[in-house]
Amino acid sequence: MWGSRTENGQLYSMRNLDWLTNVGFSKFKLITVYKIDRKIPHVTFGFSGVIGALAGMSAKGITVH
Description:
Elements: E1 29-34, E2 42-47, E3 55-58, E4 63-64
Antiparallel strand pairs: 1-2, 2-3, 3-4
């Protein structure tokens, strides 16, 4: 899919958050899986109480950061 632009044609995606580790967010990690009828399944990663996705990916390989 990505041709010669990446090793083996694969896309590797990540997000590095430079948040302080001792502020308490790490206690509320959240992985949300969406499986809606006739829609593409996807997953988001974040923290409970924080609106929006910090990162995520669909079953079609589309990522969000």
